[in-house]
From TrEMBL:
Keywords: Transferase. The keyword Transferase applies. Pfam families: Glyco_trans_1_4. The keyword Transferase applies. This is Glycosyltransferase.
Length: 374
């Protein structure tokens, strides 16, 4: 059983896809009978999602959205790393790269310890100063024994920085035991709108520009009035007020619901309330949306974009993958799925769940990441 030290600067109680994916990785490793896990992560104010069985070395707590924390936490990172190395004697260190992953690179030079770098997104994307962060990513990959990324666009970026070592792409995933069809009544917040609809379209995630929810709203508004539909937008974010105004201007407020943030454990109930769901990777800001795998695990067809990681959507006929994100392309996808008989949509959903359960479970990701047998 390998002794694994996982290091992250992600907020483990946060609500972003990045936060959730990291928490799911940790939970899955902690529950594995084949891994002896220890952890370094920012301290949390809410109840910790980390099982008590995991030896955890907490960094200073992380205020939301502050680059200053990444500079100020370096002493606590140094102390936590030194203590964990002495007490746990890890055989593998897996580090989820953040904007300040500096001190752990020293460990990558030590003999007898595998140093694995995990890059799940464009770490530098929203920072005003990007070059130092790109340099940190480059340094980490240079000293690593293995580099793992979530999608091909990250690998291309690293190659552009001069990384010549092998880069492994392991996309996001889902726990099919947690995400499954929910047969309960729809949540009360959406029940009235759903009751009057024959076609329910949903989106779950942060309401920010790169998710192109505004384009979805405009596409829904362009549909024929003969379609009795509902639009359910689950989540919150900087664009919410703008989206609410857009919904009113488009005249679709009577069949649109903004739920706000909901607990992650209730997300399957909201997904199951919809007929189809939307989640794209903005070509200008590529990603590998975790929501797509969650939608599919709940047996719902999806509307997304064509990326190497999501090529299986059309190959398995479990949704529509668009070449570009425009009002017209989303309109066409919505009409195509609306005109697909309900029994065929249900068959698409079953195929989707079967596929992600077999190929995109967090257990499979962890086994490949650590190098243990299922």
């Amino acid at each position: 059983m390998p002794r694994v030290l996982f290091i992250t600067t992600e907020n483990l109680t946060g609500t972003s896809g990045s936060n959730i994916a990291t928490s799911e990785l940790i939970r899955t490793m902690a529950n594995s009978d084949n891994i002896d896990l220890s952890l370094i992560a920012p301290a949390v104010d809410k109840p910790s999602p980390v099982p008590e069985s995991v030896s955890t070395y907490w960094l200073t707590s992380k205020p939301a959205g502050t680059i200053r924390w990444h500079l100020q936490h370096q002493p606590s990172m140094a102390w936590a790393l030194l203590t964990a190395m002495f007490k746990e004697r890890p055989e593998q260190i897996i580090i989820r790269i953040g904007p300040s992953t500096l001190i752990p690179t020293v460990v990558g030079l030590l003999p007898g310890v595998q140093y694995k770098v995990l890059i799940r997104g464009f770490v530098h994307r929203n920072l005003s100063v990007q070059r130092p962060v790109k340099t940190l990513m480059w340094v980490n990959t240079i000293v690593s024994d293995k580099t793992i990324v979530a999608f091909e666009a990250i690998a291309e970026m690293l190659r552009g920085l001069g990384v010549r070592s092998e880069i492994t792409v392991i996309p996001n995933a889902v726990d099919p035991n947690l995400f499954t069809v929910n047969e309960e009544q729809p949540p009360e917040s959406v029940r009235d709108v759903i009751d009057d609809a024959t076609f329910v379209v949903g989106f779950i995630g942060s309401m920010e520009d790169r998710h192109r929810v505004d384009t979805l709203v405009e596409a829904v508004a362009s549909l024929p009035q003969s379609i009795e539909m509902a639009l359910i937008l689950i989540g919150d974010g900087p664009q919410r007020a703008e989206l609410e105004a857009l919904v009113s201007e488009a005249g679709i407020q009577n069949f649109t619901v903004f739920t706000g943030l909901v607990p992650h454990k209730t997300v399957p109930q909201y997904i199951s309330s919809c007929d189809i769901l939307y989640g794209i990777s903005d070509p200008e800001k590529p990603s590998n949306p975790i929501k797509i795998y969650e939608y599919l695990a709940c047996e719902r067809p999806v509307i997304t974009t064509k990326t190497p990681e999501l090529a299986f959507i059309e190959q398995e006929q479990i949704g529509i993958a668009m070449e570009e994100v425009t009002v017209q392309s989303i309109h066409n996808a919505l009409v195509d799925l609306y005109e697909t008989p309900p029994n065929e949509r249900e068959a698409m959903g079953r195929r989707g769940r079967a596929y992600v359960s077999q190929h995109h479970s967090w257990s499979a990701v962890v086994n490949e990441l650590v190098g243990v047998e299922a």
